[in-house]
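Data availability (excerpt). The following record was deposited with the supplementary files.
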Amino acid sequence: MKALIIDDLHEARVLLHTILKPYGDCDAVDNGRDAIEMFRMAFEEGPYDLVLLDLTMPGMDGIEVLQTMRTLERELGVELDEQTIIIIVSAVDARSEMETCFSTGASDYINKPVSSAKLLLKLSQHNLVAKKWWEQKEDPV
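Predicted structure:
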């Protein structure tokens, strides 16, 4: 799995990277503009399988990043069933915010604080990790 983590908080990026590291390659950035550039460049070598995207960031917020990524995929001719899984990771727990995310093209939504069990369950639902992760005796994070 190839993943891109986008969060302006260093601690959040480190946590998500620690959870994902055993499952694949992870890039991490702290702002939307860098994220868009990395997302675009990834199509030259092979697109990301997963993007974990914070909503509340300075400058370009998560909704703008999500819209731009989905527009880029359409421009490149990516079919709907081949789109990158983009999961919003946010401290905002509002139904209206979630509806905006899904109508903009989010694949899923997970509330902070994030645990490895919570994230890996979402990833298994999207067939990005094996469904046997829950057999582990300890939470790796």
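Summary of structural features: Helices lie at 10-20, 32-45, 62-75, 95-104, 116-125.
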